[in-house]
Amino acid sequence: MPNFRGYQQQDAHEFMRYLLDHLHLELQGGFNGVSRSAILQENSTLSASNKCCINGASTVVTAIFGGILQNEVNCLICGTESRKFDPFLDLSLDIPSQFRSKRSKNQENGPVCSLRDCLRSFTDLEELDETELYMCHKCKKKQKSTKKFWIQKLPKVLCLHLKRFHWTAYLRNKVDTYVEFPLRGLDMKCYLLEPENSGPESCLYDLAAVVVHHGSGVGSGHYTAYATHEGRWFHFNDSTVTLTDEETVVKAKAYILFYVEHQAKAGSDKL
C-alpha cells in the first residue's frame, strides 16, 4: 500500500476504506477469466434487494460490509421526487453541532450525544442550501429541494464512522465530543425504507470493535482499538494487547464502530 508507507500520521478511516476498496477490486479480478464487462452486465439485471456492489460484481467484502442506501430528493417547487440507490461499505455520521462543545459525558448539564443522535442527523429530512440546488427534470432547471436517506438493505457488519475531523478556514480541527454508544442491541429498524419487511431481530446489532483516536488533530496522535472475543474485551495498542472490561469500552471516544448482526453473533469471530 504505497499511500500508507513511511512514518507519517495516517487516518484510520481512510486506511480502512482503501483496504476494503482495493481488496474488493482484487477479488473481482479472480472470476475464472470472465470479463469485467460480462460481470457488470450480469450484475445489472439483479434486483435492488439482492444487489450490493461497489464498482461491479459482489465479493466477500460487499457480502459482509455491503449495504444499500436510498437517496430521496424532492423538488420544493413542483414536488417531483427523485430516488437513487447507492451501495455503501460504511456510513459516515456527523456529530450534531449542538453537542460539539461537550467533550466528556459529565462535563455539563444537559443530554449526552448518543449514536442515535448521529444516526438521526444522518437520516433526517434536510433542505439543501443554495450551493446544492437540485436539477429538476420537470422544471428543467436547478431548484430548491429536500434530501433524505433511507437504508434499503443492512449489512452483516455495520461500520459507523464518526466524523471527528472538520475543516475550518485554515485548519482541520478535531471534534472531541463524547458519543454514547450501546454494546448490545443497536436497533436500526427505524432507519429502514421498509421496516415492516424485517424480522424481529434482523435489525439488531452488537458491538464487535471500536477504533479510537488519541490526540488533538488528524496530523498527530495515535490510534488504538477495542475488540471482543468469546465474551471478553481486549485493548489493542500497537503490539500490546491487554484484557479490559465493558465499563472501559463504553467510555471510549469512538472514531469507528463495528457492529455485527445480532443473529450472526455466534459466528462473528469468523467474519
Automatic annotation (TrEMBL):
CDD domains listed in its UniProt record: Peptidase_C19
Q: Which biological process, per GO, is one annotated for this protein?
A: protein deubiquitination
Q: Which UniProt keywords apply?
A: Hydrolase
- Which EC number applies? 3.4.19.12
Where do the TM regions start and end?
Answer: none
- Which GO MF term does the entry hold, naming one? cysteine-type deubiquitinase activity
Q: What is this protein called?
A: ubiquitinyl hydrolase 1
Query: What organism does this protein naturally occur in?
Result: Homo sapiens (Human)
The organism's lineage?
Eukaryota, Metazoa, Chordata, Craniata, Vertebrata
